[in-house]
Specification:
The structure is a single chain. The protein is an alpha/beta fold and about 270 residues long. It folds into two domains: about 160 residues, Rossmann fold (3-Layer(aba) Sandwich), CATH 3.40.50.620; about 70 residues, GMP Synthetase, Chain A, domain 3 (2-Layer Sandwich), CATH 3.30.300. Helices cover about 40% and strands about 15% of the residues. The protein has ten helices and seven strands. The strands form two sheets. Strands 3-2-1-4 form a four-stranded parallel β-sheet, sandwiched between helices. It has a three-stranded mixed β-sheet with strand order 5-6-7. The radius of gyration is 19 Å and the shape is globular.
Length: about 270
């Protein structure tokens, strides 16, 4: 299957980056470490153009919401690609949410994919870290490199903005989907990743997201009693009166939180890395 697309929005520089990725995937059997977000979805589409075989591989754990899994399944169906879903528990190395959690989690996840790849004679595995993300704290990227997993967007300096531009040219349904890191990021470092606590913060974030309009929304489970809401900074002025929060406060208290706070700095990536 080849996906129709237009190059009208693509600069010569972007097209050259696409060609470099095509060269990497050409006539190869490729596994995509797949979350259903715009990064891994675009990787899948690019592989689909030139690879001899493309397989999507999703690892599910208590750190991934059902909503995110449903989204990944939907995109796989839209692309008409084979999709393997494997469930796993939280790895012991990250059970207390250490600062280098992403390194251990990524290594544990990619080990399962690598084992499958070797058993089934695939040529390469690719994951979706992009050039924009390399500016932040990304221990998971080091794990991918150690496992000899390709990160084409990082390798060929494809930024998040360029990924969305390319995805739009392919008419991908997830082109505007906000980034959604795993839910371990909703808890402070060195906090036990208790499945019930993770499920609670997933429900809390879903409640807030369904009630407010903001480009980015996070709920942080700060401890047993406190939920901190972060919105895109541009949206804060719309909600500073707190009138839209009455139902949110009521529903979050039903989940067991006693104190619900709004972070006046708004959402920012890697808040627990500060």
């Amino acid at each position: 299957m080849t996906t129709n697309y237009t190059t009208t929005e693509l600069t010569a520089e972007i097209q050259q980056k696409i060609e470099s990725i095509y060269d990497l995937f050409s006539d190869k059997k490729v596994i995509i470490s797949f979350s259903g977000g715009v990064d891994s979805s675009l990787l899948a589409v690019l592989a689909l153009q030139v690879a001899s075989e493309v397989l999507l591989f999703t690892i599910v754990s208590p750190l991934m919401s059902q909503k995110e899994l449903d989204g990944a399944i939907k995109v796989a169906e839209e692309l008409d690609l084979s999709h393997i879903i494997v469930s796993k528990e939280i790895a012991p190395a990250i059970s207390n949410n250490p600062r280098d959690r992403c390194y251990h989690c990524k290594k544990h996840t990619l080990k399962q994919i690598t084992d499958y790849s070797q058993e089934n004679s695939f040529d390469l595995i690719a994951e979706g870290t992009n050039a924009s993300e390399l500016k932040g704290y990304r221990p998971g990227f080091a794990a991918a490199a150690e496992m000899n997993v390709e990160s084409p967007f990082a390798a060929f300096q494809v930024t998040k903005k360029e990924i969305r531009t390319i995805a739009r040219s392919f008419n991908l349904s997830v082109v505007d989907k906000p980034s959604s890191p795993c839910f371990a990021t909703r808890l402070p470092y060195d906090s036990p990743l208790d499945p019930e606590r993770l499920l609670r913060v997933m429900k809390a974030e879903e409640l807030v997201t369904s009630s407010l309009e903001s480009k980015k929304i996070r709920v942080r489970d700060m401890d047993a009693d406190v939920a901190k809401i972060e919105l895109d900074p541009e949206s804060l002025n719309d909600y500073i009166s707190l009138k839209p929060f009455k139902d949110i406060i009521l529903n979050l208290k039903k989940l067991g939180y006693k104190h619900i706070t709004l972070d006046l700095e708004g959402y920012r990536y890697g808040v627990f890395d500060d």
